[in-house]
Each structure stands twice: as C-alpha cells, then as structure tokens.
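Inputs:
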Amino acid sequence: MLFNKQLDKNDRVCPNCGHHFRLAATLRIEQLVDHGSFVERDAGLQSVDPLGFVDQRPYPERVSQAQAATGLRDAAIRGTATIGGHRVALCVMDFGFMGGSMGAVVGEKVTRSAEDARAERIPLIVVSASGGARMQEGTLALMQLAKTCAALERLKAAGVPYLSVMTDPTTGGVFASYAVLGDVNVAEPNALIGFAGARVSAGTIAQELPEGFQRTEFLFQHGFVDRIVTRAALRAELIGLLAYLQPRPLADATTETNGTEGDSRPRLDPIGFLAAVAERLVPDLSTDDGTGSGPEPEGPARG
Amino acid sequence: MLFNKQLDKNDRVCPNCGHHFRLAATLRIEQLVDHGSFVERDAGLQSVDPLGFVDQRPYPERVSQAQAATGLRDAAIRGTATIGGHRVALCVMDFGFMGGSMGAVVGEKVTRSAEDARAERIPLIVVSASGGARMQEGTLALMQLAKTCAALERLKAAGVPYLSVMTDPTTGGVFASYAVLGDVNVAEPNALIGFAGARVSAGTIAQELPEGFQRTEFLFQHGFVDRIVTRAALRAELIGLLAYLQPRPLADATTETNGTEGDSRPRLDPIGFLAAVAERLVPDLSTDDGTGSGPEPEGPARG
Amino acid sequence: MADAKAEAWRHVQLARNLGRPRALELLADLADEIVELHGDRLYGDDQAIVAGFARIDGHRVAFVGQQKGADTEENIRRNFGMPHPEGYRKAMRVMELAERVGLPLVTFVDVPGAHPGPESEERGIADAIARSVGLMSRLRTPIVSVITGEGGSGGALAIAVGDVVIALENAVYSVISPEGCASILWRTSDEAPTAALAMKMSAQDQLALGVVDVVVPEPGDGAHADRSGTAKRLRPAIVEALDRLSTLPVDDLVEARYRRYRALGPYTEVALPAAVPPPPRGLGDRLRDLLDPTRWSVPMPLPGASRRDEPPAHEDA
Amino acid sequence: MADAKAEAWRHVQLARNLGRPRALELLADLADEIVELHGDRLYGDDQAIVAGFARIDGHRVAFVGQQKGADTEENIRRNFGMPHPEGYRKAMRVMELAERVGLPLVTFVDVPGAHPGPESEERGIADAIARSVGLMSRLRTPIVSVITGEGGSGGALAIAVGDVVIALENAVYSVISPEGCASILWRTSDEAPTAALAMKMSAQDQLALGVVDVVVPEPGDGAHADRSGTAKRLRPAIVEALDRLSTLPVDDLVEARYRRYRALGPYTEVALPAAVPPPPRGLGDRLRDLLDPTRWSVPMPLPGASRRDEPPAHEDA
Ligand SMILES: [Zn+2]
Ligand SMILES: [Zn+2]
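Outputs:
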C-alpha cells in the first residue's frame, strides 16, 4: 500500500523511474482542469445489452461489477470545463472500467462532446485510455467508430479544433477512430498505442517486432504523435496549445464585406444548440445544426 | 532513314521491340483526337528573354533555332478537340523544342488550358514531355509551377476532371507540378519520370539506384501512375476514361430543392467565360470567374 | 442451442469459403466494363484493395473493394486480402474523385481484417481507417456498400460506411473474429462457434440490429457455388439503391447518412447525480489495475500490459 | 563584368554560410514562444522541416520552415536541410490546420533543394511539392514567406507561395543550383559564378523580377555575423505584412495571391497563323532526337536518355 500512496501523491507516476501508471478519469480531470470548473454532462448514460451477450458471465453482470469497482457508470466521463481559463468540451476515458472498452455509451459521450464543441464553438479535448471496442456489444460497438468519426468530421468542417490526448493504453477501435484524429495528438511517455494486438502483429512476421513497437515514441517517430508530454507537464501543455487551437472566428472579412459563400464559417446557431440539448433527451434524433451536411468548408446558408 | 520511315508509320514505336520513341506534339495530337477536331488556341505565344540570359549563345538565339528545327513557336501546343466525341481542353508538349523545357509560354498555355476547361466545364488533358523548367528564364520559369498548380487547384474545386498523360521524359519541375497532379495519371511504358536527375540521385547514395528507377513501372509500383498505356492503346484509353471523367453536373439536387450553399457546384458563368477570353488579350488580368477564390468546394453565390 | 451454434459457425465458414467471388469476380459479372485505378499517390499500390470505375446496368460508378487472391501466388501478391494503410489511402483518393466528378460509390467488403503486421502499424493503419470512415461519413455522393463475405472489424468498416448497406445471405460482420473473441472471453479459440453465435455475426442478425439494411439471398449452396447467379441477384439490389439515392438532394443524403450511424448503438439514461466519487485509492485501485484488459476489449494489448501496470510487479522489476 | 560575377558569387556564398540562422534560430529571436508540431500522419517526422505555432509581437501564427543542422550530428538527423516528401506533407498538415483555426502562416525558406535520393523519389517528392504549392495557392489565411538563405528550386517554392514574399539581403533564389546550371550549360561547374550571375539569383535581382516583394537588409557582415540583429530587422517586415494582410477579406486575399503568381513570367504574342506543320520526318526529326535534352532543362534526365532515343544506336543495341 505504501507505494500506492506515493503513487497517488504523484498522480500515479513512479517517483523512482517516472513510469506512468494508469490514472482514473476522475483524478485525470482533477489534474487537468481549473479547480472546480468541470461540469459533468450525461452522467446518467448507461450501457444496455443489445445482443443478450453471455460468455462466462452475462454482460450486464460485468457492467454492474465494473460500476461497483469504479464508481463510474461506464468507461468515460464527459462535460465542460476551463483549462487555464479556456473553456473546452472534455471527455475522459477510464481504463479501469472494463478496460476502457468503447460501447454505445462511450461512443455517445465522445460524439455528444464533439457536437457540443461544435454547437458552442469551444475546443474539444478527449483523453483516451482504452483497449478498443467492447466485444459484448458486437458490431454496434464497431459502429461507434463511424458515429464518432462522423461527428469529428463535422467539428473539423466547422473550424473548431480537437485535441487528442493518448494515454496507456490507446488501442484498437478507439485508436482507429477519435484518438488518432486529433488536430494535435499528444501522448504520455511509453504508452501502448496501436491498432492490432502485438501478439497478432508478431504472428504475421518471422522476426521480432521493432524495438518499442506500439509505444508512444514509436508512434512519434512514425509521424502520428505531435508531442510526447509527461503527466506532470500535461496541464501546462494543454494550456499552451489552447492559446493557438481556438475555433475559427465566426465573423469573417468576406461575410462582413460581401457575404459571399466563399466564406466557410457556419454562424453560431441557437437552434442547433437547442437541438443539441434536445438530443440528449431523444437520443435517436441527430443533433445536426443544419450547417453540417456540407463538405468542408460548410455552407452557412441554413444556419 | 529506313528505320525512321518504319517508325513514323508506327507512331514512333519500334515495330521490333515496342520501344516508344518521342513523338512530336503535332503527331501526338493527330494520333489522339477525332480527325480534324483540334482547334489551336494561342498559337502566337512566344518566349521573351526576361533575364537577358547568355550562356554560350544568347537565349533568343536558342529559341529561334528551336523554332526553325521544329516549326513550333515553343514547347507546347494547346487548344480544344474532341476525343471519341468528348470535348476536351488539350495541351501537348514537344520534347524536341529545347527539351520540352517549361518557361513562361509553356506555363501560360497549361494555365490557360486549365482556365478554359474550368470556364467551359470540359475535361482537361495535358500530355507532358519535358526535362523540366527552362533555366534560361530563371525563377520566372520556377514560378510556372505555382501558376499552373494554382490553376489546377481551381479546376479541381470546380469539379472539372484533369487527365495527365506522362511520356518520355517527364521530369523536374514539370513532373513536380501539373504532370503529377492528374485526377488520373496515365503513362507510356518505360518513360523516364522523376524529379531529380538520376546522376544527382545516385550521388546521394553509396549503392546502385533501384532497378528501373524513375521509369513508368517504378512510378506505378510506388503509387503515382494509375495506368500504363502503350501509344497504340492511348486514344482508346482516353476515350474510356472520359466516359467517367466528366465535370460534376451543374444542376444539383440540393440547389433544385432548396438552393442551400451546402451545394458545392459553381454555376456556369458567362461572365467568367468572357473574362477567360479577354484574359488572352490582357495576360496580366486573372481569368477568375468569381467563384474560384473559395476553397473546394466553391461557393456559387457570386457566379 | 447446439444447433444454433452450428448454424452460426456454418455462416462463418461459408463467408470464408475460398470459392466465394471477390470484388473483381463480382464486378466481372455485375458490370458491363471496369477501369481499375492504381496507387495512393503517397507510397504504393496495395493490391489487397481494388478501386476504379465501372458501369453497372448503365450506371457509371466508382468502386472500391477488398480483393483476396484465387491462388497462393495471387494471395501473396494481395496479402490475402488484408489491406495496408496505402490500400485505404488509395480507396480515399478514388472516393474523393468520385465526389468531385459526381459518380456514386459502390464498395465491396470482404476482409478478415486490416493487415496487422508491423509495417501496417508503422505507416498508420489506424489513421487510414479512421480517415476513411470519416471521409465516407461526409462524402457528397451516394454510397452503396455490399458485405460480400467476411466483414472483419475496422478493416471492413473503413470502406463500409454507406447510405445503404447490403449483405449477401452468408456474409458475416463482426467487431472481432470469432477466434479472437473466443480466445479472449473463453480463453480458447475452440469456442469460436460459441463466440460467433454470441456476437450475432450473421447477415440476418446484422439486419435485425440495423447495421445492415438489405440481405440478398444466395443461390443454391451459396455464392461460391454459383458466382454469376450471385451477381444476378446482387445487381438489382445495388441498382435499386443507386436509383433511389440518386433522387435525394445531396444535403439530405449526407444528413441521412449521418443520422443512420448517429443512431446505431442503444443505451439508456438513468436519472442520477453525477458519477459517485471512486472508492478510496489503494485496494480498489489495485483491483482495477489487476483486471485483465484483454478480457474486455479488442484487440488485445500486449500480454504484459496489465501486469506491467501492477505496482508490486513493477517494483520487483 | 568580372566584378559583377564575383558579387553574384559572394551572395551565393553568403546565402550558404553555415553560421546563418535557420528557421528555429530566427524564431528563437523573433518569437515570444514557439510550439513545434511533429509528423505527417502518414509515414514519419522529417526533421529537415520544422512546423508548429509561434507568437510574434503578439501575433499568433503557424510556421513552417526548412531546418539545416548546426553541427554534423544535427545535419545528419536533418538530412542537411533537404526535405523528403514526409517533410512537405507535415508542412501541408500544419498549413491546413492554420487555415481551419484561422491562424496566419509564416514560412522560412532555406534549402539547397528537396532531397534528391531514391527514397525521396519513391515516396513521391514531386507529388509532395506540387500539392504543397497548390495548397498554398488557395489557403484561406494570410501567408508571409521569408527566403532566409538558399531558395533552391522546387524544394524552396513548395513552402514559399505567399501573399508577401520577403528575402533577406543575402538570400538567393534560383530554378537550379548555379553549379548544376553551369555543368549543363557551360559543361563545367567551375562556371557556377557565371551561372549565378546569368540566373540573377540575388535578392535584389529577384525583387526586380517581381518574384520577391521585400528585401530586408542584413546587419554588418551579414546574418551569420549577427543573428539577433537579423531577427530584429526581419520582425517588423513580417509583422507589417501580417497586419496589412489581416485587414483583407479572405476571398480578396486568395484572389490577389492567385493573380500574383498568375502574372509572373512574361511572354509576347505575335499575330500569326497556327504553328506551321513540321518539316518532313527523317532528318529534322533525327536532329531533334539528337538534341541533348540536358542542354535545355533541369534536372537532367538519365545521361543515356537522349542516346537511348536515337534510332541507330538503338538498333545497334
Ligand atoms: Zn518505478
Ligand atoms: Zn526496337
């Protein structure tokens, strides 16, 4: 227990060797946001059992056990907060909840975070910690890749930046959707980041895997991580990046002068924002604010 | 002479081994277009000597000599034609004129071809045969890369397709601008296609150059050529591709139904077309038809 | 139950039948002509994915499909139909071209999974899949996707985001291979049939889940036994979808596609305060660290991953 | 004439001076802070190009620049400042991000040329240059490009398409290196100074040609002798340009940039019928085939290229 106490004092980073242990979502949020600024959204979202999935135990039992063990309802917490005074939409994953696996609830929280960021025109930050898609929800878990990537494409088209933070581990369908798509990707040192399981990868070749395969530094070397940031430096790093990663201004010279559609910025859209709110009550409604069906950059006419 | 007569009968392809010799622009056009359909434009464009460039002989002398030897005014012929009934803007380079080098005249002919294709909404085809930029025009030759690439970006944004045909040789600044940027890139077999001179490339490494380095098949293998097509099959190939590579329809469901700017198609713009014509008389005017300054896809409002 | 399991496994085996027609074989029967395009304009030309233009019943379309080999030589050339990043990047290039020139897109999905090798990871297979999924979600042209055989996880979805998703009767679609699922949840791949049943992989199950819109029956013993018969049944389903989609305004089309995927994956919302604070650190935390991640999710992180993250073990090191 | 030649060569040597500040050194003096971004999201992180965010006199901007090394170790790591395709693809990624979030772009150009090695060709250096040039021509945010040292052909232009192009006093800009030009046109690289003069490479000459808009004087003996003094002179030029450009409507900005490059490169138009038909095939044609392509254009095709294309020789083979 002693070592764990030391770890907790140090945000789960080994004071001896600097190894980054996994950090619970609640503590991650505490560490990153301005004190007391986090306002959770959709705390009540909970997984269902669409397949009636049973392996050695029924899926609902596994969920209940994970809830009891973690005090979380599922593997992600989302809301809004300020970081160094910058207001952001924030979604943080928790590996402790069923390996941070992404089912419909995680996919929904990431998607709503992207949709809120777009409607409110505030940057989006997602902190990933996940083994991938949640098998127990079958292809409906796989479809969360499409749901989240589609929402991120609309965010991108709206000129609202997205910052992806990858922590140990970020693998499978989570890496292959929102985690890899950051306008800027930052990662904690030596985190496991990859698509296929290393055992699978190794199986495909005779020789050994490359040194440091699927670790942060490997991803950096191959061009998929912008910055490697220790946990201790992460909050300052995000503040520094947020100074540049702000939504493109809505008022644009072209529209001020001649209102041509050459301008690509959608207007702030209260209807859209209300729709985003309403959508939380009626999940099968799209939260599209009406400017999003165009390709990038979007035409604003329907805003 | 005998062998040359055989070659000429066979469009300069060796009947014995199939080697593709270089083909003059006039013969290339004859071979590709529907008989008698080619209408040349800007035949009068001629190079000037902006740098007062003299090596062993003055640049103007070299131009005159090349004109006398080839009957061409410079290294490219452009105009409109039909190919299998498909109307196209066509620009064909001639290696025989100073190694097909690209100065302001070649850059202008390629650019005007792209601008015509955009204004008239007909596909663009450029047949390249060039050693690269023309040294004797210095950085003004280099700027032709920017001029042509900018025009091709506008063509692309307008949803008008561009077909690039690479023949022996297509190197340097011509390869690194319009030749490589085709929506579809076709190349004749065993053509020399590359950016840096092979001697330079070899100089940078100890070992031998890769087998077939900078040949068509090498480019195909590395993902930069869609199709390798023999000269005998080229006309049929272009006809086949043009059945698919047609400008995006101007009338689009979205505009018919609600006229939103989500629709990305610029309207046909007579003003723009006239401007394109006028521009030929006043070269320093842009032919922009007013819809082109937006990013892809363009907003049509000013059309 | 045993019967159901056998039936589920039979579907998996049919979907993997080596005689099953691939994208090019189907197109040979479906299309009046095809023109294949090559290369990703970045790195290479991955033959595990084919792409280009085709004319189907007079409809000019762009196509993208996975392509396994008919024999060993071809399978080696095509990496047994497992695409590398450059394959998906070639697909994206053709998709963007289709949008630009206003051609509808038809995709043919049949893949055990994206290539899992180190080179695939080095060149960013996850990035390629995510961007292809995102591109298809916003592509301003109709998209019809056909699951013809194995719909293997992200490697399949990367070219399967469509306005209409069609599946052949004996096709399967899953988030992980049944062997992989079984080896994780049942600790032995022998339970693959059990996993196949549990994941509801079959075309009919996927139709019931709303992941697939249309199931096209296969002739006789299945597609492998009658390629042209399969194409004959598939053609009208594709053409009908293309005809219908072509009447929609593009904005509405893309909006409907967004909603289609936006709505997939049910959940519930319980009226409750924000998540309660976690239990005191230490034991509960240790317990969480001890949970084997590979039990929950796919694909498996490094075997050592969870152990590496258990403080005591770490201290011993 | 000899003096002019010597003066032209002096500029080339100054532009190549190893002590000259590179992008990061200049930014260290110019900017209050910089945040470097890494990777092209496709293949790797080319250290011959640096890119990211910086704050200059309170202006938040995105930057892209070529970066040579200060010592051998760094030069090896940075390939002596010669970018591979992944370097230009990293640059394009940051340019697109700048456009998306509304940051102006400042580029720092100092490159002997794009990397000419086989790997650079294999991964598409020509494609990367052409796409970067095209992207900059339409980027919907202000672009200020600064030629700080060697403006080496396409590898320089790839990040030098700007609304305002600034050059330091001793910078040079050319379509080919003077050595390359001399070895082709004078058959010996010893004539490099002659070629340098003929190509009008100097900043002042480029200003006169309209390729460069502003020449910023260097302090004392030159930038290599006074880095901070150089930055002090460069800062106001950049800031003035940014201030002015920021007042233009984006459509007008992009339109003006198009016209800037549209107008570069003079030619004349003579009233004459279409080109006369070529002389009868045979001798004239042989003559053309015999013309050594390397005499006319850069870069040189394979030495064998022209001979290979001479029928008789071919027949002997
Ligand atoms: Zn330690
Ligand atoms: Zn021969």
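Remarks. The mean pLDDT of chain B is 84. Residues 29 and 92 of chain B are 7 Å apart (CA to CA).
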